[in-house]
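Hi everyone, sorry if this is the wrong subforum. Our group has a chain we'd like a structural model of before ordering constructs, and none of us has done structure prediction before. Sequence below.
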Amino acid sequence: MVANRPTCADICWQKLLVDWVKANSDGTVCGSDSLAIAGGVIRDDQGGWIYGCARHIGRCYVLMAELWATHDILLAAWNLGFRRIQFETDNLEVAQILQGRSDALIGCSLVDTIRLLLTRSWSVNICHISRMQNMVVDRVVALCRDSLSSSMVFDSVPAALVRKEVVSF
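Answer:
Right subforum, don't worry. Here is the predicted structure as tokens:
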């Protein structure tokens, strides 16, 4: 049996309306020590790099790492002055929590903080995407995992991503 190969629609950049930015987040938990990393990327309506970040967040489980990544990239988007955001995550539970379609982590202060952030005067569309579509931010998180730095900020595309041919504009 041959597996279905992903199509361009499954993994290619989808253009946005003018004046919108796309913010992607990803969180991961590494190895038996459960050390977690959260990261995110912001790109303009044409796919051009604006901002990327990643940081070690200590020990936690994957859903919390994903939520910290969501918090960090949405806060960065706000602080950078963006008010029209297409937010994308490859974690279905995070998307459902933010859309109010999941009761997971009710009363969690991090979820409450993110929800409060979403009530600010801006438009944030929340979308669940495939892991393949989130590959750029996945690689940003991996750069932090492989680094001795506790946090990293990228004002331009990291050279390691270009070499891996992950960034497609």
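For your construct planning: Residues 16-163 form a domain with the Nucleotidyltransferase; domain 5 fold (CATH 3.30.420.10). The chain has one domain: 16-163.
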